[in-house]
Amino acid sequence: MKQFKPSEEVDFLVIGAGAAGGIMAKELSSAGFSVVVLEQGPYLREKDFEHDEIKFTRLDAMTNNMKRQPQTLRKSGAEPAKLQGQKFLQYGRQVGGGSVHFTANYWRLWESDFQQKSRHGSVAGATLADWPITYADLEPYYTKGEEELGVSGLAGANPFESWRSKPYPLPPLPVKSSGVIFERATKQLGLHPFPAPMAILSEPYRGRGACLHCGFCETFGCEVRAKSSTLATVIPMAEKTGRCEIRPDSCTRKIEVDTNGRVTGAVYFDANRREVFQKAKALILCANGSETPRLLLMSKSSRFPQGLANSNGLVGKNLMVDAGYEAFGLFEHPLNEFKSVQTTRAIHDFYEPDPKHGYYGGGGIDARFDFYPASFALSGLPKDAPRWGAEWKAMVARNFTRTLTLLAHATCLPQEKNSITLDPDVKDAWGLPATRVTFDFHPDDRSNMKFLLERQIEILEAAKAQKIWTDTADLALLPHNHLMGTCRMGNDPKTSVVDRYHRAHDVPNLFMVDGSSLVTACCQPTCTIQALAYRAADHIAGEARKAAI
Amino acid sequence: MPDELISRRQWFALVPMSAAVLAAQQHAHDIMRAAKPAALTVLSSEEAQEIEAITSQIIPTDDSPGAREAGVIHFIDRALATFDSDKRALYTEGMKQTEATRLELFPNSKSIAALQPAEQIRLLEAIDKTEFFDLLRTHTILGFFGNPSYGGNRDLVGWKLIGFEDRFQFSPPFGYYDAEPRQ
Ligand SMILES: Cc1cc2nc3c(=O)[nH]c(=O)nc-3n(C[C@H](O)[C@H](O)[C@H](O)COP(=O)(O)OP(=O)(O)OC[C@H]3O[C@@H](n4cnc5c(N)ncnc54)[C@H](O)[C@@H]3O)c2cc1C
Ligand code: SF4
To answer: Which residues in A lie closer than 8 A to residue B64 (C-beta atoms)?
Structure first.
């Protein structure tokens, strides 16, 4: 792999080698530019992806860790933020970012998603807005992502999906028992189940093997490169160009600017905690919906006293996360859901917000199983079951292979008061201000989740589950994996942080390309984040060629 | 095609991966499974006996192995020596409280381990809303159902109990309902 000296001014410095960062690295290096990617986490390889529930789900071998990177949380700005035992915002922290351990649900947005404000009007207390781009603008890049990364699905099977210029490059993965049960029950209810589109190979593709259905998928890395992470796909392509260096264990702490307000590079801690300054002509920030705003807020200077790209004070605001309750069903015969990928069937019948409901909100529902042996024994039994002892043991023994989950993937309204700021007191392991999260769901979000939960229960009833139960714990206090909206894109510099091509309104050679750009919540954001990255890279490369950055 | 019929050779054909990587992965897997529990490092043998008596009521031995046979106590010892070393004080304090509760319930008793099973269950019922019990329950479950490399789940008793298998590959049909003829 090509290595650059920090003193060498590279064309692009990318921060974060995740779902979007990997694509930026590949596209820009393939277009002939020199690229350094700073990734705070390690460079793990397939051999490191053991089947070890404790290591990967409890010891954070691949995710941010609360001891190293604490977070404080409060529901509103009026309350003191409290240090949390469990994290609120979770993300992948290694080369490949969240794309390595994600469940790989790969849903495009609908055409209507880009015009929610025009279609539904304003929602009190929320900052619902239209996107500055349309589905048609993004469609070629959805297609490019699906083809280059490898996505399995069945075009047209979801009658609600928007038009597409090409079918999925790979057929759907084999249906699991949860999928069969879900498909029968939803059809009986007049709904429209379809094979879940997954960024996982159902067949060998472009030199990678098909999924072997090992089952250690969500929250694990794929040992055989069948999951279409950026680690398995575009990052090796970037390295092969000979113009891209992926630099792991490099925790960026500040983006530097000159007196003209242009970015000159970034300071990071290397593996030995030495501070290094990497010089660059332009910077692409791909550190995700949580770390991108934090880094901008930490990059204060006399020219940008409120933090970089933050003249309107919107950096970190409009935080949106995944929403949706779980409903569980117990069945007579073994489903053996511990095998293969998490989910194989979904519905979009309740996706588009329905004005008749009297609130704003919609979402999809899928059938899945995201337990592993220990997590199931800890919390997989019905609420009224014993928690220990002989009867508990017998229930765990019987239920593990017979339980499935219906999970809703619901909208989350953008609100300015939901934000990421710097904690004034708590510091992380590098001595940097901890992330302070202020978050609560909009009342409409809660009504919507409740509506969807009722549909989930109906489906389980139609499926004749032997037992049905739900989990309605307050999601404003639990961990979230979809981190969106904190540097939203828009045409108006007063109401957005980046423009329609992800360029910071305030800084000409700074681009934010990741979950932070999203204007409205995506039920499964990664497909759109990656399509946006392909689109942004196309444009940025063009601008660089014209010397217009 | 039953899973067993996919030979390693076929697997090579399916997965473009070097033989060395495969061998290394298999080796790591085998080591993990063969791991022998080490001697206790943090807990004294008296403490270990008392804690084990509780874990053996959380996951009792009946017609299948329980926490004791799984070596859960070795998992706990190791957790307290490594990734949960900051929980040691909670254990010391929790056990002190639990012994006190034992003496309240059974004034003439000598130890938790020496109580009759029914008495042990009564003791657990008296403490099962405490923070310490939650931690001990979590550790017992992690030790019983986690990877054997952490000292517990000996002979994979936890996984056998629930019908879980740790493999690199499965093939469809995976369960009863996807094996049924499709209507
Ligand atoms: C368990 C789980 C399941 C998920 N399942 C799905 C799913 O099924 N479908 C879906 O669409 N999404 C899913 N997601 C979400 C998905 O992972 C994210 O949407 C996606 O990875 C976000 O992409 P990104 O490019 O914005 O950021 P990321 O992929 O998070 O990449 C950001 C990278 O930047 C690095 N970084 C951050 N700060 C710094 C710094 N200061 N210096 C250097 N590097 C830094 C991070 O370590 C990380 O590698 C899941 C997430 C989790 C955790
Ligand atoms: S289930 Fe398939 S894609 Fe997921 S980790 Fe296992 S082999 Fe890889």
So the answer is: 397
- Picking from A339, A344, A372 by the largest number of B CB atoms within 10 A of its own CB, the best residue to mutate is A339
Q: Which fold has domain A1-46+88-100+229-319+481-549?
A: FAD/NAD(P)-binding domain (3.50.50)
Query: Domain extents for chain A?
Result: 1-46+88-100+229-319+481-549
Asked if the model's pLDDT at residue A85 lies above 90, the reply is: no
Q: Residue B19 pLDDT more than 80? A: no
Q: What is the pLDDT of residue B22?
A: 46
Measured CA angle at A53 (ends A47, A55), to 5 deg: 65
Q: What is the residue extent of each domain of chain B?
A: 45-162
Distance CA A508, CA A502 (A): 10
How many helices (H) does chain B have, and how many strands (E)? Answer: 10, 0
**Ligand 1 midpoint to CA A444 (Å):** 27
Distance CA B108, CA B103 (A): 7
**How far from the centroid of its chain's Cα atoms is residue B58's Cα?**
11
What would the pLDDT profile of B80-139 be if each residue is shown by its tens digit? 999 999 999 999 999 999 999 999 999 999 999 999 999 999 999 999 999 999 999 999
Tokens representing B115 are: 């109580």
Q: What ipTM goes with this model?
A: 0.95
Are A168 and A153 a contacting pair, CB within 8 Å? yes
